[in-house]
Every structure is written in structure tokens, then in C-alpha cells.
Amino acid sequence: MPQQHPPRSHAIHARVRSYSRAGGRLTDAQARALERHGAYYVVDVPRADAIRTVDASYRLDPVAVFGHAGQLRPLIVEVGSGAGEAILAHAAAHPGVDHLAVEAWETAIARIVRDAAKAGLRNVRVVPADAAQLLATALPVGCASEVWVFFPDPWRKPRHRKRRLVTVAFADSVARVLRPGGVWRLATDWADYAWQMRDVLEEVSALPEGLQADSTGPYFRYDDAGARADLGEATAEENSLGNGPDPGSPAGMRGGWSQRYAGRVMTRFEQRGIDAGRTIRDLTAVRTSEMWVPPRAEPVAL
Ligand SMILES: C[S@@+](CC[C@H](N)C(=O)[O-])C[C@H]1O[C@@H](n2cnc3c(N)ncnc32)[C@H](O)[C@@H]1O
Q1: What is the whole-number distance in angstroms between the Cα of residue 86 and the centre of ligand 1?
Q2: Contact in structure between 217 and 204 (CB atoms under 8 Å)
Q3: Domain boundaries, the chain
Q4: Distance between Cα 250 and ligand 1 center (Å)
Q5: Alpha-carbon distance 59 to 61, whole Å?
Q6: 225 in Cβ contact with 211 (< 8 Å)
Q7: Which of 90, 165, 177, 275 for mutating ligand 1's site (highest number of atoms within 8 Å of CB)?
Q8: Ligand 1 center from residue 20 Cα (angstroms)
Q9: What is the pLDDT along the chain (302 residues), one digit of tens a residue?
Q10: Cβ distance 196 to 166 under 8 Å?
Q11: Which residues are catalytic?
Q12: CATH code at 28-287
């Protein structure tokens, strides 16, 4: 029986930024790369009111951007690609798949462009934008075969947690752009962010009977519930928030972790987490065939 949806009422245009600054100083080589190859690799985005924002009326057509004239190819969207190690390696190994890197940092964008050009890749483009906005409005519904969020900024201080990217509102946007059967892959080296990610997945997934509390709709299947419950035990440290088992699920009764995604190459951020002794946790959710319904707008108080 289809699950009943409670009304979705979260705001989709959260102005809280999950990235620290869009600026950064370009090296001469990065500036040259942008100048030479930017027109090919960087997607021009009309802004709403500030750098990296996205005009709500803007629509990004991946078929036009990649120039395949009506040909529907698999599309991977990576949110926060950093220097682009993961997406560029995947693009080089899968020429029949298109890859869209969404990144806020100018220096990171320049590095992706430089390295994509160096490798002669034709199946990569970079969107310099706040992914939270881009996925909420600009990308077509059901356009992506995969969405990747690897090692998002952890925003560890309690007063900064509201800036974390992976929330139920963001999950709704991921559900919006993923096609049925599409895959959302996440990874982090911060235990308390991993728990937050898993809570989000549980909230938006169809779970075994008895486990669905405030689900906003079965947009995802989260098949790893209960799997690898002891992940993190080996690195447990008293009073350390970055390690250890989930205090909310000490017996692994709920939640769980996926196997490491084999298609992800090691990045600077993952290596830094490993070097610091933190546990890397992966999560994988599969988009169900449930039709995406736009979130209901908050009523405006008069
Ligand atoms: C910690 S780095 C991780 C980079 C890469 N995924 C990796 O594993 O190495 C996070 C990146 O996400 C970018 N980012 C954070 N929030 C973003 C957003 N809302 N839209 C686009 N990029 C974002 C940051 O600029 C940064 O480059």
C-alpha cells in the first residue's frame, strides 16, 4: 500500500550557506585555466541576489549543456566536488556518462577546469553555484542517475550545525533530481555528521514496519538499515565526537552504514580524516519510483 505523505512545508530557499566563502585567491595557473577553458567547462548561471545564488527562474538543461542533441545519457551530479578528484577520475573511466560538478569555491572550480582540460575530458562541466539552490529549482526533475555528496563541510561547532548541507530539505531536492532507481551516495569522516545523514535518510525512506516515525515520503530506499552496526567501534575514543558508535543507536537497532563506494578515489579530505584516526562512513540510498511533489510553501503571516 502506498505510504501516506504528511504535508511537506519546509522552505526550499534556505539562505544559510553550507560553504564558507566563494572567494579565494587564484594562482596564475588557475586563472589561466579559467581564461582558456572556462567557456567550455563552466556553466554560466544567472544569479538571484549574490555570488553563487541561482535565479529561481533559471533552468539548466543537461542535454544542451553537454551537447548531445536529444541523446539521454546517464548523469552524475556531484555536490561540493572540491578539487574534483572523485568526479574527474570517474569521468575519465566512464566516457559514456556525463558528470556535473557543483562547487562554490572559485579556486576549486579553477582546479577542476584545469585538470579536466589537461585530461581532455568532454563529459564534465562545472556549475559555480550553491547546490542547495541549484538542485531545488534549476536542474530538471528526474535528470540524474546519481547524486554524490562526499565529505561535505562538517560544521562541527554546535552554533554552526545549521549550516550543514545534508538536511531533510536538501534530501527533498536530491529526490527531485534523481530518476527512479537513481542512487544518492554520501560519505563523511565525522561521526556526528554521519549520524545526522543517516537520520535524514531514515526520515525520507521507506523503512521496515514500525520504524517510520515522521517520514516525509518514501522517496528513497535505504537498504543498509542495521548493516555494519559496529563500524566506528575500533576508533571509539572517550569524549570524542569524531569517533565511536552512535549514542542514539548503541546496539545498532536502527540505522546502519553502507560499504565504501568502490568508485570513489581517495581525496585530500578523506585522507585527512583517516590520518586523524577517524572512521569513514558511507551511506547509499536508492530513489524509489514515488513521484516527486513540490514542497508546500510556508503560509505567510500577515
Ligand atoms: C570538505 S570539501 C570536500 C570536497 C570533495 N567532495 C572531497 O571529498 O574531497 C567540501 C566542498 O563542498 C563545497 N560546498 C559546500 N557547500 C556547497 C554548496 N552548497 N554548493 C556547492 N558547493 C558546496 C565547498 O566549497 C568545498 O569545496
Answers
A1: 12
A2: yes
A3: 28-287
A4: 30
A5: 6
A6: yes
A7: 165
A8: 9
A9: 333 333 333 333 446 888 886 557 899 999 999 999 999 999 999 999 888 999 999 999 999 999 987 778 999 999 999 999 999 999 999 999 999 999 999 999 999 999 999 999 999 999 999 999 999 999 999 999 999 999 999 998 889 999 999 999 999 999 999 999 999 999 999 988 988 898 888 888 855 455 555 544 589 988 876 677 777 777 666 665 545 555 655 544 456 788 999 999 999 999 999 999 888 999 999 999 999 998 877 666 66
A10: yes
A11: 153
A12: 3.40.50.150
Counting from 1 in the atom list of ligand 1, the atom nearest the Cα of 80 is 12
Q: Give the atom of ligand 1 at the shortest distance from the alpha carbon of 268.
A: 9
